[in-house]
Amino acid sequence: MNLKIRDVAEMLHVSEKTIYRWIKEKRIPVYQINHQYRFNTDEIKDWMNRNRVDAVSDRSVLAEADEHIGLSELLQRGGIFYKVEGDSVRDLIWNSVSIIPTPQELAKETIAEAIYTRERMMNTAMGNGVAVPHTRTPLIRSSRDENLSICFLNQPVDFGSLDGDPVHTVFFPLTASVQQHLEVLSKITFLCRQDEFMSLLRGQAARGEIMAYIQERESSWEIG
Question: Can you give the pTM of this predicted structure?
């Protein structure tokens, strides 16, 4: 248990306050020794791998979020799309990026290529038919352009998931900072562990149902 709060915050390029919040919400592996929090290096690296987080060493590529934006608001900005075509991971990414909202100053081809390049380095399939393709580092610079889109596939696509299940639902997070990126990935991971939420995804539920479920869960996080 050789890592302290400060060490993990620096490793993930987030604030210590964020680490404390993740501990409270039980989103990150931690131990309490003599009334102090301690982390295991291997467990943190495994957590980063499971959440598809890249350690970024160059802070110049990071943008600070102007404000914390909730998952439901990000999804309202990005939207939910149905019957997205694509016989391969590459085609699916290109077709999805072509329809999801993206900043005007960034060419969709640039975003799609960055996402696909990251996907080839390490697939982002979470299991149970869900994947979260994203860029290696944030491409956008302002929290005003942040959003999250959900794309339901017209037919499942093999992402190389460890559980062998083809992907039926893809989340596309576009964030302006590593901190917000981690927050979004953490919340998506949590939601996808809930049977009720997975039933909504498998059934390609209506936008209103999905949004209502996320807003309800988000309210419980704030209260907790």
Answer: 0.72
